[in-house]
Amino acid sequence: MNGAAHASGECPALDVGLLAPGRAGSPTEHATSDQAFLQAMLDAEAALTRAQAAMGTAPASAAAEVTAAAVAARFDARALAVRARAGGNPVIPLVADLTAAVPPEAAPYVHRGATSQDILDTAAMLVAARTLDLLLADLALLEGELARLARAHRGTVMPGRTLTQHAAPTTFGLKAAGWRALVLDARDRAARVRGGLPVQLGGAVGTLAAAQAYGSTGPHAQHASHSPDAPDAPDAPDAQDLTLRLITTYANELHLSEPDLPWHTLRTPLADLAGALALTAGALGKLAADVLTLSRTEIGELSEGGAGGSSAMPHKANPVRATLIAAAAQRAPALAATLYASLPAADERPPGAWHAEWEPLRDLLRLVGGAARDAVDLCAHLQVHPATMRAHLDLTAGLLTSERLVVELTPSLGRARAAELVSAAAAKVRTGGGTLADAVAAELTALPPRPHGADGPAPPVPDLTTLTDLTDPTHWTGCAEALTDRALKRR
User: Fold this and answer.
1) Is 91 within 8 Å of 41 (Cβ atoms)?
2) How far, CA to CA in Å, does 483 sit from each of 139, 151, 155, 328, 476?
3) Is 349 a catalytic residue?
4) CA 257 to chain centre
5) Which three-class secondary structure state does DSSP give residue 161?
6) Contact in structure between 146 and 162 (CB atoms under 8 Å)
7) Nearest-10 Cα torsion for 105, 108, 109, 115
8) Fewest CB atoms less than 10 Å from the CB: which of 120, 125, 153, 233?
9) Could you tell me which residues come within 8 angstroms of residue 9 by beta carbon, excluding any fewer than 6 positions away?
10) Rounded to an integer, what distance in angstroms lies between the CA atom of residue 357 and that of residue 343?
11) Residue 294 belongs to what H/E stretch?
């Protein structure tokens, strides 16, 4: 953009994702755009009028007119944003514009009985619901890819690593099954939150006083059909009950949950949503962290299919998908923390805590949705290198099986002495070379004879041939395959 365009006051698109490749082009980016939030606010307004019409407290014609006008493309989101500064939220100017967009006879039924927070909170829940639907679809795809990897590599042995070092053998199938278990945990929590996302309707301070008054007076009040001289007729609906039923009807219109109370300062829905999204980001981040480690040049046990390049180094094949997922996992906890920090919401509408939620919520939805999209792509094309894994098992000349040798030698030496002997042998392998089998055999040969008078014959100790077999890492994977199979039974 040139300086003249800037000076002229033209306002280009403010956020096209230039610095956010993790969410750029993802379905969740579209579902959380300014236009999507604007449409959600309009959906909330239209649904409120329809709910009142369904209750008999607004004309059906008004509901039809408001619904027809509630199309985001008919409104200027940027102008609404600028005008929102006057009242601190975008609903105030939106209500004015929507009221002006409908015929005069429908105008009194726009936003009737609601307050700005009712509309913005309900819109946030609509955007969250629509985004979670996309997220859950990607998590289902990801679960399928991870199940495929776990089955294909249930017996592919690789070094297990603890504190960055080779520890004991495991299988790649078990690792993939673990990734899948985390994804399923995230899916279950996201699905539970999705099913409970509530509408918001409380009016100015959460008492529904205006909604009750509107429902009890005027030409479209529920009791208008009753005789004026018989207000206490047995079939006359109770005004409070009628107003509470409005919440039910409103929730049904939007396919959201009906809350027990207006939650304008009871922010559990946002906290639950934040927790589910942060957990999902962490689950995807664990997968990414493992891929990033195992795809290092000097390790090379995994690699991304279609890896990314470098602007300076033509040889690079970067694990870009895993990198973007890792970035999302780094940011998500802080965004969730902001939503948790807004829980102590003062009074009946807090000065700042509510306003602080809007951008972090959207960023969190975008980050996690983009990360899930990238994780599906990553795992669908992930390249596993069993030969490299097998070669790495031999790098430490049997040291990965030291735990096994302690177990095998305990009957003849006792556990403490067996651990001491294997530790001494392992130290010699690390410093002087050779194999763990040879070093243990040498340590056994150097043992002093059994003390005179010891009860019974000495238990046999393994010979070199047996020790060589015991130090084969592929023979020390425990229940890895059975655990993988067990994990894959989870649906």
Assistant:
1) yes
2) 22, 11, 11, 30, 14
3) yes
4) 21
5) strand
6) no
7) 160
8) 233
9) none
10) 10
11) helix 268-294
> Are 329 and 285 spatial neighbours (Cβ–Cβ below 8 Å)?
yes
Instruction: Give the other-Cβ count within 10 Å of 444's Cβ.
Output: 18
Q: Name the DSSP letter for residue 301.
A: S
Tokens standing for residue 356:
């602080």
3-state secondary structure of 211: helix
- The C-alpha atoms of residue 287 and residue 140 are separated, in whole angstroms, by 15
- Write down the residue that tokens 């005069």 correspond to: 104
Residue 280: CB atoms within 10 Å: 31
Q: How much is the pTM?
A: 0.91
CA distance 321 to 382: 10
SS3 category, 40: helix
Report the C-alpha gap between 99 and 107 in whole angstroms. Answer: 5
CA 352 to chain centre: 26
Phi-psi region of 89 (alpha: psi -120 to 50; beta: other; left: phi over 0): beta
Q: Exactly one of 74, 192, 310, 490 is catalytic; name it.
A: 310
402 noted as active-site residue: no
CB pairs under 8 A, 24+ apart, for 93-97? 94/38, 94/41, 94/42, 94/45, 94/119, 95/45, 95/119
Spatial CA neighbour of 245 closest among 233, 258, 231: 258
Which residue in 349, 362, 366, 373 is the catalytic one? Answer: 349
Instruction: Give average pLDDT by consecutive 10-residue segment, the chain, 491 residues.
Output: 45 78 93 97 98 95 98 97 96 98 98 98 98 98 98 98 96 98 98 98 96 78 42 59 94 98 98 98 98 97 76 66 97 98 96 97 98 97 98 96 96 94 96 94 88 60 92 97 98 93
The C-alpha atoms of residue 91 and residue 76 are separated, in whole angstroms, by: 13
Could you give phi then psi for residue 177, rounded to 5 degrees? -65, -35
3-state secondary structure of 323: helix
Strand partners, 9: none
